[in-house]
Amino acid sequence: MEGDKMINQRKKRSDATHNKAIILQTTTQLLAQGEDISEMNMAEIAKKAGVGVGTLYRHFESKSLLCQAMMDEKVHDMFDEMDTFLHQHQDATVRDKIYGILSIYLDLKEANFNVLNFIEKSNSQHQSMINIPFYEQLKDLIKDQFTSQQQTQDLEFKIKLMLNSFSSDFYYFAKHDQQLTKDQFLSRLLDIFIG
């Protein structure tokens, strides 16, 4: 009797893990096909994943959390790429290191603009880059570059102000209204904050 109960529990856990993987795989495929997940409701996402709406909500209580889960691996890979970049450019200037970090971040942002924009705006009433889940990790990585050169005056404020320039609304404005390339955007931004 106890053995049957344990088998049923393992099967339920296995099914739950499988369902979660199917949901993430489906939403990732939809995104790759150009679908705007932020425009879809949870019932549509559940239907496309072949699971019930209750199952979807059991794994992700909001579309924002679903989008964050979709981005987790990409964000992890982004930070790995940043670590590799910093290791390969240990002797670079603070400006060059921060340029490299932010360039890698913008690659992720441009490839996943709609999803990151949705996450930013879903996490708070404020439209600010600070609302992305990995903001603190990105801020700390940039802060480490400054503190290695003892450039610490108003550092926290400068970094927060600089990173808020990467909000989806402002970055969209810079790219489309001002028609700045990624490199022009980064260069102008760093001219202001680093010199």
From TrEMBL:
It comes from the Bacteria. The keyword Lyase does not apply. Pfam families: TetR_N (PF00440). PROSITE patterns: HTH_TETR_2. InterPro entries: Homeodomain-like_sf, HTH-type_Tx_Regulator, HTH_TetR. GO terms for molecular function: DNA binding. Residues 17-78 form the HTH tetR-type domain. Residues 41-60 bind DNA. The keyword DNA-binding applies. Keywords: DNA-binding. PANTHER family: ACREF/ENVCD OPERON REPRESSOR-RELATED, ACREF_ENVCD OPERON REPRESSOR-RELATED. This is TetR/AcrR family transcriptional regulator. It comes from Staphylococcus hominis.
